[in-house]
Amino acid sequence: LCGLEANYDRLADFFQEQETKTHTKFDEAKISNEFETAKKCFDVGTKYLLPTFKKMTLTDTQKRVEGKLGNIPVPFVGFIDFEFSDCLYDLKTKASTLSVPSQSDQRQVSIYHHFTGLTPWLAYVSKKECKQFRVSNPESQLQNVIIATESLMRLLSISDDIEECCRAVYPNLDDWMMSEPDKVKAKQIWGIK
User: Fold this and answer.
1) CB 81 within 8 A of CB 89
2) Burial zone of 33 (CB within 10 Å; 0-12 exposed, 13-18 middle, 19+ buried)
3) DSSP code for 174
């Protein structure tokens, strides 16, 4: 799978880099669980995706794409996991596979489709199975990206004070992406006890 094994081996380095970058100490039990999950997902992904991928011509992995959409002044940047001659795949690891692809994942690969013209696919890999979905409506999903981005631009136009803009949306303190320093700051901004 073109370097996935090397990427798995780099997982420890990734966590250390993130700790340094975010000044956050990650829970060792969670890291250990992530390693176990990553290993199982790697094994399942290899079993299910390798036969499909071997039938296609791989042109790139982790390919950076960048460009503008509509009248949005900020460029969109992303990385295509697997680019083939006639399609692209984005790989998602999940605790359990989905029966339909998430809207946010469809929007992400629709951006990649816009910049490359390649048919977008999503592969969801869990510890037990892998499901692949062709995104059949990338143009519609791309319009949703533009609408969402314009909404965010309107929110940010409220004020030059980022904390005032933040107060317009209540935080989800349970979100796994919020570090402890983020939670402390969010509680300060919203006055949460």
Assistant:
1) yes
2) exposed
3) T
Q: How many CB atoms lie within 10 A of CB 125?
A: 24
What tens digit of pLDDT does each residue of 37-65 get?
Answer: 878 888 898 899 999 999 999 999 999 99
What residues form DSSP beta bridges with 119? 87
| The pair of three-digit structure tokens given for residue 172, joined into one six-digit string | 């989800």
Which amino acid, residue 26? F
Q: How many CA atoms lie within 13 A of 167 on its CB side?
A: 12
Model-level pTM greater than 0.90?
no
As a whole number of angstroms, the distance between CA 124 and CA 126 comes to 7
pLDDT category of residue 9 using cuts at 50, 70 and 90: low
Pseudo-torsion of CA 112, 114, 115, 118, nearest 10°?
Answer: 70
HSE toward the beta carbon, residue 131, CA cutoff 13 A: 12
pLDDT in tens, 156-186: 898 888 888 888 888 898 888 888 888 999 8
